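Extended Data, record Transport permease protein
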Amino acid sequence: MIGGTSLPATYFSWSGNLMLVKTYLRVVAAMIVREMSTRFGRKPGGYVWALLEPIVYISMMTVIFGAMARAPALGTSFVLFFATGFLGYQLYQAKVAFLSSAVKANKPLLSYPNVAPIDAVAARFILQSATTLLVSVIVLSAIFSTLPVLPEIDWINILGAEFFAGMLALGVGMFNSVMFIRFALFEKLYGIATRPLLLISGVFFLPDSIPPPFRDVLLYNPICHIIMLFRTAFYPQYRAIGLDPGYVAQVAIVIFVSGLIVFTFSRRTLRND
């Protein structure tokens, strides 16, 4: 009662929910700072390596394939072709690699009542998304500065590729977080099974240039569609035959929901094992 007037119950409900949101945001923010310190260190060199890694890889692929072919599979710039393929691939791969060990790496923090397993996943997802965005902007800006004509960028397709890749990575990452803790062998098997993804996802070639029926089999891989969608944002003339946003959306939703269910029903395992 304030000034003789009783406050409605909804006031206390909203006030309590607001406090919970503030606590959650503080926990996630603290974990992001911790992850930055752990991953990149307290020296600038850690951040520099996050930028140098894709630059070195893209440069290496440009030199190798430039010596083997007269022109890239799309456009006239080898470096832009490989950059759009590799950065499109990293939209998924960099996130899922970081998310899969989120709970395992932050196990000691889960002894605190305010820290939940999902907080570790959220912190790593936000940090990796920001890192990937920064690296992509710097790398592509450097490439654009060398081109005689700047490409017309379709931001809708970039956001679509990022959204689908994020959903896929969250679903697989949450599932792996549980499986990596429950079964030590699963982590090794997963690493072996997913190692060829870089070669079969369309980073070095255009999936629609592969003759059927091999192309049809290849396009069951949702990462192929993500990379194709990402590339169309920089190549307006690219028709991307076989690209199906509806398919990748369905796969992303199913995997995200499945990963979330497994993660939610394994909270006790994630805290105690």
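Summary. The chain is about 70% helix and 0% strand.
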